[in-house]
Design goal:
The protein contains 12 helices and 47 strands. It is of the alpha+beta class and 846 residues long. Strand 37 and strand 38 form a beta hairpin. Helix 11 crosses helix 12. The radius of gyration is 29 Å and the shape is globular.
Length: 846
Amino acid sequence: MATMLSLILLASTSPIEVEFRPRTGLFFDAAGVSLSQGSFIQYYKPGWSRGYYSTNWNDQTVTKTANGSKVTFKSSDGRVDGTVTIEKTPNGFTADYNLAWNGNEAANVEVSFAHLWAPAFEAGKVLVDGRETRRPSVRLPIGNDPKIRFFGGEGTTFQFDAPFATLQAKVIGATAYVFDGRGYTGDFAQNRELFWFGLSDVPTSPGKPAKFQVEWTFTPKKVVSAPDIKNIATKATSLPSAKAPRTTTLPMVPQPKEHRTLTGDGYRWMDFRLVRLTQQWAAPLAFLHSRFDLSTYAPKNTGAWTWSKADQMLPAGGYTLRVEGGKLSVIGQDDEGMRNGMMRAVGLTTVKNGELIIPPVEIRDWPSNGWRGLHMFVGPKAPEFQGRMTDRLLTPLMFNQVVLQCERTAWDSTPGTSVGLTMSKPDLARLFAQYRSSGIEPTPLIQSFGHMEWLFQNNKNLDIALNPKVPYAIDPRNPKSRTLLSKIWSEAVALLNPKILHFGLDEVDMRGMPDDDQLVTDLWNLHVPWLGELAKSHGKEMMIWGDQMLAPGEAPDAALGDAKAHAAARRSVLPKGTWIADWHYINNANPAIYKSLELFKNAGMKPVATSWNRPENIKGFFKAAESQGGAVLQSTWAGYESTEQNMLRESSQFVAYLLAGEYAWSGRSELARDLPYQPSALFQRLMYAEPSPLKARAGAALSWSPSGTKLVIGDYEFAKQAPISLYDPLTAIGVKQPKSIALSTPGLKSNSLVAAISVRSPLDELAEVATVVVKFADGKTKLFPVRYGQHVRVARENRSPMVSAASEGISAVLCDFSEIESRPVEVKMVGKVFTAGVQLHGITAF
């Protein structure tokens, strides 16, 4: 296994700090500015018809040398063999590339020398071979064509000029180019602001490696020193509505099929604590508690409410809801429909004069796709994390299925394979029970051919590996493989009692297997019928991924079944009625391109349109599913463990849940960018907004230089102040900016405060831009990290932070210290990543 070692070159003679990180590439910074945020090297078949190797998906070894570091990498099949040698220089460093190919097929390489952080150079210019190109300050529309985004043409000498410094790169042995990754839809650039610098389509063959060198030089223009901490006196002024009740309804998500607004009286919720409710109300009540603080709810007048089941000639899950004359009526087509109608009633609820009100409305609604699921991993923290998500997000979005990839469980039959992210069997059973109590049916996914790294963890079970040197797939020809899989699945069925068994089977030949299509087909045709019999022996249905049964041309992507004859042969051995999780992630909203759904349906299978986090992929693929069985699945690939931290780091994958719920149910026609709500802002409100008070809560605004303007962000109100800017090397040329600020809070009595904070430049997700430090009269302090993407985000990204409410780029960052009895005497904000450009606009305490 590659040594996970990185080297930082810290030389007094060099202004640049360099680090090569395995799987993410080259990072370097200077003068406090992160200049490069990764890179990659890729080998591929000319024409991009097939990829052979990527440093993004494989490990590299980084070793220290006398004057720098050496990066080495090899593919498991021996075809790829490369090095990158980094040497420091007085004004920067050099990087030498030697990229060998030992395969029989033709191969090209693409190399990104650096993903340059665009905000560092936006106020400057880019020169190619001495010629100035278009200005970096000009931003292009969103698109997938890199050529229109080029800064000039190809060249060998590049200069990136900025107010604080000049960065130069000289390419020796090849020509390169720069294109603007801001708004580019390629995977590496999504939601990042980068300039891609590198080259592509460079041929390499046995005995003729691709060789070139890049000389990097950094010249600072001015050294900026920041002043010491400022002490700022504040005045506490009363705010009657520091935190206000939520008086607006949620957007109707998913959009109902039929609805009309009525006149007259709405429905006033009764005090439900006084009545005995049925199981159908468990999920709606959990959602109601997440939306409102019900601890003091005691309505004076309440309306009549009824809920029941009846055949209304609607699809399963459908319902009708009517609010009129002070009455609420929910009629479900079935139990699921009754629950969905109740969820809708909660979503329509708002606050008026301290009471919970549903405005008068009539809705008749049903799902466009009957089987609506999410795919997620598990882990020790999954029951709590996914439980919160279920209450606040999944049931309101009316999902009714979940596929839980749970092979990393401490099975009795796989001793010695546990690692830190392994889940216990009791916790997995608890997680399955949680979902069922909320009306969501869970399906276990345990990889049972390829992607078996979990089974070979800690060098266990190598005797059944197809290639023990690259332990990735089991060998179906080995009888011990079947014996062990039978034991694992017997445990899972006894513990979980699922309706469907998902055996995985995607990308089975990705690692450690000879490049032999016939061998893959032979092993598949031996193993898959046996898995079908295994499912049948337990009285369960079977599900697998679909990529290995599709040839190029039979689907828009993820057609990994080699030639059509092989793909057809593999489909032919499937038991009729097998569920096929047919995954395709191309960002295309045209339903017609997803023709593999019909292919699987015609073969007697149950296709499940499986999307990822690309909005147009979700819309188009789910629309295609409506006529091919009505089953959809939103996949999640945010690490192998389900945690809140992974959600915050991979935010786009989880905001996509909201889009998946919308399109799966409503089938609405708009593209995601044209929806009447911002998905990320709604995700934040559903998942993280504090329960709304039923009456306004008074508080105090801390004033240091009031603008006379009221600022409202989410439920919070601020007296807007003239903003205080922390030091930012991108803007501090000749301008004095503090690296931290301290505000006194004399006489303040509160147990929480909310800071209105903005940033000028985007950073990587979860980068800590600043820390709010609250000091108390007894000498204690409490720290509140402020992280990019979690609490703050630049307005031009047009998406909300995950946790904090935001308005026009200013976030309301909550700091709760209710467990501390002493009163606060000082609030300090300390900068962490100074290029973020942090600004403080106001503080409200309550």
